Amino acid sequence: MRTRLAGRSAALAAAAALSVIGSSAVPARAQPAAQAQVTVRYAAPERFTDAENRFGSGQPLRVTLAELTRIFTDLGTARLRPDERLDITVLDVDLAGFDRPGFATPTGLRVVTDATPPRIRLAYSLRRGGRTVAQGADTVTDINFLLTSNPRFSTGGLYYERQILRDWFARRFPEPAGRG
Hints:
Layout (H helix, E strand, L loop, with lengths): L1 H24 L11 E6 L18 H19 L4 E11 L3 E3 L8 E3 L7 E10 L2 E11 L3 H4 L10 H14 L8
Parallel strand pairs: 1-2
Antiparallel strand pairs: 2-5, 3-4, 5-6
Helix pairs in contact: 2-4
């Protein structure tokens, strides 16, 4: 009887030891890699040239600004070094196309032509280690936007705006040496 209990105790001790070993063998959640910080501000968005649906044909202003913020953040974290901080102030937005009220639908439609390119006016400041390494103001646009982009494969809204901002990031912030 004593041997049986000792065997059972040994088995329980072994099982407990394995569960402790097993639980310690599970890796802790990896800490996310450091990313560049991107801050986006909007100066008087209610006065933007064309950033909201005036006739019910598109997104409300808050949705447009949220999508633009996501685009800036995604592009910045992908393009900039982890120790960099980019502050962007959007001064004006003119989305691609124009609202056409009552055109084929009761709420209207956004018509995109080569005569209505997207245009985003912004100011930016890039800091590295607390020091400003680049700053300026730009008007981001591309009059050939319909020739250089293909929205058929787009997975989100503001496709043309995303494309011109991707090109702007590539020109303004070339990938750092050693990345890529």
